[in-house]
Amino acid sequence: MRKMKKKISATLILCLALLVGLTACGGGKADNTADQGTGNEAAGEKVTVNMGFWGTAQDLKVYQDAAATISEQYPDIELKIKQYPSSEQFWNTLPGEIAAGVAPDFIKISNEGAFEYINKGLFTPLDELISSTQVDMARFPEASMKIWNVDGKQYGVPNSDMPAMFLINETMWKNAGLGDYPTTWDEVKAAAKKLNTDKVHGMIINLDAFHITNYVKSFGGGWGNGKTINSPENVKALETIIDMYNDGLAVTPKALGFGWDGEVFSNELGAMSTGGYWYKGFLKDANPDLKYAAIPVPKGTTNGSTMSSDAYVVLKDAKNKEAALKAAYYMTNDKTQTEFMELGYNPAVPELSKQYFEKNPEFKPVQPALEYSTDYGYPTDTKRFTDELVKQLEERILGGSGKTAQQILDDIQKQFQ
């Protein structure tokens, strides 16, 4: 899913609030040897588990294939798949489904914005279920598990991980006579000066929370779920962004009439940008002849970037939570993960992840970032925070508000005390 489509709508948040209210009113290898059952084996009955997700037709086929084979590991579970056209439709539909008693038992969701749902009690903590079902969570790397661990409780079964990237137009880079790719923002600035022309900007900086957060992470900062918004590290990151605009090195997509950074990059109007694995699929259609390099997000003061992670989470009102966890865990089996790998996802299973980077050699330089990339850390009121962050930076960079990075973050911090 491309980042320009990942903002959470106001409608979604309202529906989430309704959903939580309804909930409150309502009542690595596959684990083949430790199955504790679901309590229905004696009667020979099957437990029906429902999974909800939003994604492509190709995703649906992978899930349907997995549902058809789950009985090979869990003979007492029948798995049914429901596809929603979009995340917004999912959250808009879910309250009514809960009220009618037909909501999914578990879903697949991205970590960008997930803290809000966890904090409002929508998902079931999995720790006791992991113990009772004995699913092998050691299958997943520590970095993946941490993404879905909040206040010492595990909320997700990791499915895929991918660090943020820094994309470079390879042809422009070589034509400018530049050598090794940059590893720091100072090196990026120096390169941008040489890449700047009458038609091309050295840097594309999309004033979007995803991109801003990657600058923040590279200076050792983070939002701390709202507790560290105006930290010195975060201030330094925003100063770096503002300086690049002040020096004439960077452009926003909006200033050029585009919706997101990938469009500027594909039209070869910008030479460098933070971005992600979704660039590959987009560029394949938008500009198949464009040659690019993908490297880790450059350092401010440290190695740091965001991790985009999908996971399976069990809803608070799941009818049989143990069976739901087992079914969710089954989705991480090697066959299913390999099929998703063919669709461009990096599996959250180390051995399969190695294969992913072999199949996608253009992303190989980014592989080390799997070790240090971390969650977004947005406050609970995610949409309000990201909207305010973008608004204030746009007013500074596009509107000339004159506010310093410190003033911007101090102002936002006051709103999220």
TrEMBL record:
SUPFAM superfamilies: Periplasmic binding protein-like II. The keyword Signal applies. InterPro entries: Bact_solute-bd_prot1, SBP. Residues 1-26 form the signal peptide. Keywords: Signal. CDD domains: PBP2_TMBP_like. It comes from the Bacteria. The keyword Signal applies. PANTHER family: ARABINOSE-BINDING PROTEIN-RELATED, DIACETYLCHITOBIOSE BINDING PROTEIN DASA. This is Family 1 extracellular solute-binding protein. The lineage of its organism: Bacteria, Bacillati, Bacillota, Bacilli, Bacillales.
